[in-house]
Amino acid sequence: MAPRSRTRTPLTFTLRRATLDDADLLVRHRLAMFREMGDRSERAIARHGTAYLAWMIPKIASAEMVAWIADDPAGRPVGSGAVWFQPSQPRPGFDDLRVPYLLSVYTDPRARGAGVATAMVERALALAKRLGYARVSLHASQMGRRVYERLGFQTTTELRYWIDPVQRRREARRRAAEAAAREPSPAPRIKTAGRSARART
Ligand SMILES: CC(C)(COP(=O)(O)OP(=O)(O)OC[C@H]1O[C@@H](n2cnc3c(N)ncnc32)[C@H](O)[C@@H]1OP(=O)(O)O)[C@@H](O)C(=O)NCCC(=O)NCCS
User: Which of 60, 67, 74, 85 could form a disulfide with 98 if both were Cys (CB 3.0 to 4.6 A apart)?
Assistant: First the structure.
C-alpha cells in the first residue's frame, strides 16, 4: 500500500502484514489498547497478555487471524490491528461458518489522527471482501467508534446478559457514566426572590 498521510498530522506510514515475529508487539499493543479504554484493572490486563499470546499464535500461523502493523518511515511500529475469522453458525441467506471480527486496533498516541486505524480497517475490509465474506463485525471502544462509523459500520441488535454479578454491576456503572456524559450539563442555578431556579437557556 502507498504511504498515506492526512493534513492534521504529517506522519506517513506503511502497512505490512504481521508475522509470528510481531507477536510480542501485537500483545503490547493490545494491552495498551485495554489500558486506554480504562475499564479493566491493571492486574487483569497484565494477566491477559499471556493468554492472548497463546491464543493468537496458532491463529496467526494458520491465517485464521490476519494482523497488520503500521510502520513509520524509520521502520518503527506505530499501530496495529487484526481480523479474526471467527467461527459462526449458518443463518438463512448466510452460509458462512465464520464471520470476520476486527480486534486489537491500536495506534500509538504520537501517530494518532494520521489515518493509521482507518487504513488498517480498510485493509481488513478489503481482505474480507476478497475472501467472499458478507459482513465484518467488531466491538468498538469510545475512541474507535467514530473511525468505524465513518467507514460505514452500523450498530446492531446484539444484546448481552452478564451472568457474573461483578461484571453486571460494572456494566451498569459504565452505562450510567455514558448516559451522564451524553446529558447536557444543567443550566446554572440563579436566585429569584429568595428561591433558586434553573436559568432558561
Ligand atoms: C481509536 C484509535 C485506534 C484511532 O487511531 P488513529 O490512527 O488515530 O485513527 P485515524 O487517524 O484513522 O482516525 C482518527 C479518528 O479517530 C477518532 N479518535 C482518535 N482519538 C480520539 C479520541 N481521543 N477520542 C475520540 N475519538 C478519537 C476520531 O474519530 C478521529 O477522527 P478525526 O481525525 O476526524 O478527529 C486510537 O485513538 C487508539 O488507539 N485508541 C486507544 C485504543 C482504542 O480505543 N482502540 C480501538 C479499539 S475498538
Answer: 85
